[in-house]
Amino acid sequence: MRIVLVSDTFRPTMGGIETQVGALADHLHTRGHDIVVLTCTPEGDVPSTCPYPVLRSSWRNPFNAPIDPKAPRRFTDFIRRFNPDVVHYHMGELTPVVQSVLLNLRDSRIPQVVTVHSLWDPRVTIPAFRAIARRTGLAQAPIMWTGVSELVNEQIRQVLGPDICVSTLHNGVDVAPWQRPPVAHQGIVAVTATRFAPRKRVDALIDILSETRRRWDSYSRGHAGDFPLRAVVAGEGPLFDGVQRRVERSGLGDWLLLPGRLSATQLQDLYSRSDIFLAPSVKESASIAGREALASGLAVMTRSQSGLAEVVENGINGWCLDNDDEMIEALLSVLETPAQLEHIHEHNRSEDFPFTWAKVIEATENYYRQAQELASTEA
Fold it and tell me: What is the residue range of 150's domain?
């Protein structure tokens, strides 16, 4: 197929959407598809080595943001001339170019797939998108809608209407590098890889870990200094310095480490020496990091309100917990009875991982075919 991927951001930016779109393009190209990526992200200092064209429409602005007012027209014109077999849009909460191109081409006969990667603000974004959809008739357009989780899909229905057909297109993981043999270690090691931003609830995670230590000591579950948990919170972001100061002031640094941003290889090494992945955010659309942890064999402990909870089964591959206090009690339970981790680790390392790129690409190609059927029906 001749496939156009449209994403406001792309390499060399390395966020969640960028990682997924880049890997999707790579795997589609490997499968023999003719790929073109349209983006507003500048190339950067190191020239791209992509084996497929990446057309960048960038505009110098004071904020160095991937924005170009001329990009929607340029991309729309290119797509009409190129006449691809399918256009695949990758939408977040603030992706104005993708949204503009989608509206420009909504009534065209070009097969189109939309994947929504992010949760939308229910107070601002959803009402705004709903108004745009009603004014433009977007819900009636022959477009294949997908989201990265059912949590995201429900928000799409809130915008387009309850009768709109929305399917799930899971985030993919290159599994092999994450499936390292486990390395023996003392105690229980809990880890997370996250961005130090408000929606990730890193401060709440520090509260959870600190309260777990307090309750362990107050219940006399161990002797003085005999706390079997070690925690590693990896990542960077605007809240990092404040969290680091808090950990130092609270005297948590002897068992709670903040190593900063780790590379994928460093995370894979860390996970091979760890037991639990902690995901306290309630605003995760799907969590690539959580899937990587599952691929590594870790037991995932997440909030039930998160999109990650949709792929976590209580007591099977981790725990879905309704609030932070339940997460604290679950941690205490594991510290008291570490043996309960054994069957979870065994399950996660032996089960056929459901989010390999091979499976995601197969689902993606199926959605492309469905988009072609929709477009041909409207023709």
Answer: 2-172+357-378
- Please tell me whether residues 289 and 365 are part of one structural domain: no
Residues 125 and 217 in one domain: no
Same domain membership, residue 141 and residue 257? no
How many whole angstroms separate alpha carbon 308 and alpha carbon 256? Answer: 24
Contact 92, 118 (CB under 8 A): yes
Beta-sheet pairing, 276-279 with 318-321: unpaired
Q: What is the pLDDT of residue 301?
A: 98
- Same domain for 120 and 222: no
21 and 166 co-located in one domain:
yes
**Tokens linked to 56:** 């960048």
Between CA 354 and CA 233 the distance in angstroms is 26
**For the chain (length 379 residues), average pLDDT per consecutive 10?**
97 90 97 97 77 90 74 97 98 95 96 98 97 97 97 98 97 96 96 96 98 89 72 97 96 96 97 98 96 97 97 96 98 95 95 94 98 88
pLDDT at 15: 86
Distances (CA, A) of 295 to 130, 152, 192, 233, 351: 37, 22, 14, 19, 9
Distance from the first to the final alpha carbon of the chain:
19
Q: What is the pLDDT of residue 220?
A: 63
Query: How many other C-beta atoms lie within 10 A of the C-beta of residue 196?
Result: 22
CB-based burial label for 160 (10 Å; 0-12, 13-18, 19+): buried
Q: Which residues are registered as beta bridge partners of 46? A: none
